[in-house]
Each structure stands twice: as C-alpha cells, then as structure tokens.
Amino acid sequence: MPHGLGTYIQVTNAVTNVHRGETSLSLTSRSIIQTAEAPLDERVVTIEGVGGDQETKELLADDGECYLVATEVLSEALPGEDIDTFIAQNAPVTLRLFMRGATVERVHAM
To answer: Residue 28 and residue 96: Cα distance in Å, rounded?
Structure first.
C-alpha cells in the first residue's frame, strides 16, 4: 500500500541513528510499515459565520480557516434546532473542535 504525503504511518523493527544532531531511520529485513490512524487534535476556535446545507456546515473562524462539520455533530453541541440562526445571533461563538486529520469528530461549546 503506498504511503503519500500526510499519511500517518507506524514503523516497527527499525533502527534510529543520531549523527551530528541529525536523526535517521533505517529499515531492516524485519521492518514493517503500516498505515496508522491520525492522532486526535483539539482546537479552540472562534466562529464568526456559518454556511452550508442540511448535512454539512462550513464554519468560518476568526483566523480565516473554514471547518467542515457534519450538521449532526454540530447540533449535539449547540442549543436549538437552527444552527445557522444560533451562530448568526450569538457570533462570535467559541467552540472546541476535536479533529482527526481534516475531519471534525466532536464539538463542544464553550
């Protein structure tokens, strides 16, 4: 299986070497490289705007980033049934996003 840029991998039975402050990794005949799950990243963001459809919301943060979040995930964290109206009336809204790669898995309102 090819491992491209940005792919998380797990390497077992490898040798690390440090020479003049540079670290290198050497594989052996017993080395195994496997695709690994991306780590869970936690971010606190301030949301200034929202768009999207019934299935996916696009959250515009104050740092210029845009986060795609499943409406179901977002509705578990925010009160009321209309997410667009809630954010429009209460912006800026601070949220804690739990992400794996670019996928937002959980949201907590702060």
So the answer is: 42
pTM of the model: 0.70
Which residues share a beta bridge with 70?
56
> Are residue 29 and residue 46 in the same domain, yes or no?
no
Asked if residue 84 and residue 51 are part of one domain, the reply reads yes
The answer to whether residues 28 and 70 belong to one domain is: no
With a cut of 70, say whether residue 105 has pLDDT above it.
yes
- In degrees, rounded to 5, the angle at the alpha carbon of residue 33 between the alpha carbons of residues 30 and 36 is 145
Whether residues 52 and 94 fall in one domain: yes
Per-residue confidence (pLDDT) for residue 27, from 0 to 100: 93
Query: Which domain range does residue 9 map to?
Result: 1-36
Total domain count, the chain? 2
State how far the Cα of 71 lies from the Cα of 76, in Å rounded to an integer: 9
> Which of 43, 50, 44, 46 lies closest to 86, judged by CA?
50
Q: For residue 73, name the pLDDT band (cuts at 50, 70, 90).
A: very high
How much is the pLDDT for 22? 95
